[in-house]
Structure formats: C-alpha cells, structure tokens
C-alpha cells in the first residue's frame, strides 16, 4: 500500500512537468549524463524528438552521487546527513576516509577490531544480497582493518599492553597515557581536516579572488599550528596574511564598504575555527575512555580471581565477557556517532556544501504479488 501511494504521489508530481495537447505530448525531466546515448537511441526508434540542454547556473538540478564500488559507501554516509548541492563537489571520498580514520582512533583496540571482523565475517553472505549491503561490507572491512592497525600502534589488546621485547610490542609507536603527545596528534588531525575543507572550497571557487578567503583560513590554521610549536615570526606572518585574505576577499562582488563589512564578519569565525580544531580532541578522549574501561574490567576480573580462588574464575570470566561486551558496544556507538559528527559538523562547516535535491529516477516501486 505504501509503495502504491508513493507511486501515485510521484506520478502526480511528474504530470506537473508535462504538456499534453493531442497530438503533442511534452515531458521535461532531469537525466544523468550517461543516459543521453540510450535516450537518443530510444527516441530515434520511437520517432520522438529529444532536446538535451545543460543545466544553467541559476537552476538547481537534482544530485546523483556516483563513486567506484569500493568507495561508494562514502556517498551513503553523506546521504545519511544531507544531499550536497549539484554545483558543489562530491565530498563522499573525503568523508569516507576521514570517518574510517576517526572510527579507528576512537575504538583503537586490536581485540575489538578482531571482534568487529568476526561480525563482518558472520554477516558476509547476508550483506551480499543487496548493492547497499555490499557497499557497507567494504566499509566494515576498512573499519576492521584500521581498528586493528591503530590498536597495534597504541598497544592495546583487549586493554592489555604487550610485554616489552615481544613481537606485538614492536608495533607500539604511541602511548595513550602520554596525554600531551596524543592531544597534539588529535589537534594536528583536526587542523588538517579543516584545511582540507578549505581546499575543497578553493576548488569550488576556482582560482579567482573569492578563493583567497578560504586560502586565508588555511594560512591562519597553519600559522596557529606554527606558533603552537614555537615558530615565531613565520606563524605571525601566516596569521596576518590569512587574516588579510579573509578580510578583503570574503565579500567579493559588492561595494568596498560591503566587502569590508563582510570581511569583518568573516573574521569573527576565528573563534569557530579555534573551537572546531579543538573539537578533534574527542578522538583522543574517546580512545582513552575505551582503553581505560577495558583496563578497568581486566583489573576487576583479576581482583575477583585473586579474592575467590576456584569459583572466582567463573565470576572473572563473567566480568570479562559482560564488561568487554559492553565496552565494545559503547566503542562502536562512539566511533559511528563522533566519527560522522566530525565530518558533518566541523568539516561541512568549512567546506560549506549547500543542501541539494536527491535524484530519484521515475519508476514504479509497487510490485505485483503472486497469489496461487
């Protein structure tokens, strides 16, 4: 019934884009570029007239996101939040790789990564039954891989650190308990993500004066990082040049007074930029929380085992099973929620994709039911 109602609504909407005055019937519609040749072939066979026009800048065509099968899950992640405007570049690939990295940093445990891999393996055939399922299967494999890799880099195996001199300890390059270093890594990743968003803006504008505003933000972010590492004059020069770019080129196209006002308003986003970069500290904080909970459950199980010889083994196993199961679930939720949040809020805040209209092919969704 729902499919039938949706078909009726779609048909009603489509009829508004037609002109019918026998013997003339005209239909206007948007079509993907790669469908032009099949449409021409169909029109020639049916003695139809087909007129093809490019979309005009003042128009708002529907957006059809298309990526290679291995990267197509990125467009599903983007569409979960919004459909980008037709005139903006497709952020799917950037969102995909960023999300995978953030997820791995938040979950960050080899044991939990292997558990995720086991879940993917158990669901392998089920996810093979649909196109979307196959897309997300590739995504989950990537999440499994990055979680294992990051977990090995920070030396966390179900919350247990490898003994020095062992093979697993050789992979450990980072220490989660080194708060200063881990916070610096998170801030640098955040700065790089914001810079990448502004590079997307530069590409959208093209190499014109308007692109000097996002270039200015890039200079200010880099300048702030340089100053943070004691770069001295170079940092101040970058901050000054960046501020000038934002001040004079945010409002390109208006009168000098309007441009100055828009530039001053643009500079007020300095606090937003600072806050957005600091927001990536959640990568370290959530990763530390996952590791700390795992260690806590391990310690609690060992205490019970020591205090209750014999029967304590059963209770210790119960604590480990429930504790790590709960922590694994919380880590997955945090990885998905905050991994996507940093893309949808911080990244989109600087790459500024306006919302568009998703392309939906005109087709009947209701299917006939066979009744024997």
From TrEMBL:
InterPro entries assigned to the protein according to its UniProt record, in alphabetical order: V-ATPase_116kDa_su
UniProt keyword annotation of Hydrolase present: no
BP GO terms, sorted: vacuolar acidification
GO molecular function: ATPase binding; proton-transporting ATPase activity, rotational mechanism
Transmembrane segments: 93-124, 136-159, 179-200, 207-230, 236-256, 277-298, 310-333
Coiled-coil ranges (or none): none
Topological relation to the membrane, as annotated: Multi-pass membrane protein
One term under GO cellular component: proton-transporting V-type ATPase, V0 domain
Subcellular locations according to the entry: Membrane
Keywords for this protein: Ion transport, Membrane, Transmembrane, Transmembrane helix, Transport
Recorded family membership: Belongs to the V-ATPase 116 kDa subunit family.
Protein name: V-type ATP synthase subunit I
Organism: marine metagenome
């Amino acid at each position: 019934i729902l499919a039938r109602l949706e078909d009726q609504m779609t048909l009603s909407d489509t009829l508004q884009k037609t002109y019918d005055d026998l013997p003339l019937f005209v239909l206007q519609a948007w079509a993907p570029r790669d469908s032009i040749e099949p449409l021409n072939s169909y029109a020639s066979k049916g003695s139809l007239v087909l007129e093809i026009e490019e979309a005009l800048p003042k128009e708002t065509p529907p957006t059809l996101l298309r990526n290679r099968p291995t990267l197509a899950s990125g467009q599903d992640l983007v569409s979960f939040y919004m459909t980008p405007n037709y005139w903006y570049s497709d952020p799917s690939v950037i969102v995909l790789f960023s999300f995978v990295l953030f997820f791995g940093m938040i979950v960050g445990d080899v044991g939990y990564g292997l558990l995720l891999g086991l879940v993917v393996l158990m669901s392998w055939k089920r996810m093979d039954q649909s196109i979307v399922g196959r897309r997300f299967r590739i995504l989950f494999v990537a999440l499994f891989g990055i979680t294992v890799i990051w977990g090995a880099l920070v030396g966390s195996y179900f919350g247990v650190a490898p003994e020095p001199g062992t093979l697993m300890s050789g992979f450990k390059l980072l220490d989660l308990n080194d708060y200063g270093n881990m916070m610096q890594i998170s801030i640098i990743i955040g700065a790089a993500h914001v810079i990448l968003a502004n590079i997307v803006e530069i590409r959208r504008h093209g190499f014109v004066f308007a692109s000097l505003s996002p270039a200015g933000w890039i200079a200010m972010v880099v300048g702030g990082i340089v100053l943070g590492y004691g770069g001295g004059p170079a940092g101040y020069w970058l901050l000054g040049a960046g501020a000038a770019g934002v001040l004079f080129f945010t409002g390109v196209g208006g009168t000098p007074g309007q441009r100055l006002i828009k530039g001053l308003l643009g500079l007020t986003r300095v606090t937003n930029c600072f806050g957005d970069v600091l927001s990536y500290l959640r990568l370290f904080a959530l990763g530390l929380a996952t590791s700390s909970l795992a260690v806590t459950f391990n310690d609690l199980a060992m205490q019970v085992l020591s205090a209750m010889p014999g029967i304590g083994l059963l209770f210790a196993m119960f604590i480990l099973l429930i504790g790590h199961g709960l922590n694994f679930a919380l880590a997955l939720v945090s990885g998905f929620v905050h991994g996507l949040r940093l893309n949808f809020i911080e990244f989109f805040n600087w790459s500024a994709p306006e919302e568009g209209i998703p392309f939906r092919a005109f087709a009947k969704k209701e299917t006939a039911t066979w009744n024997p």
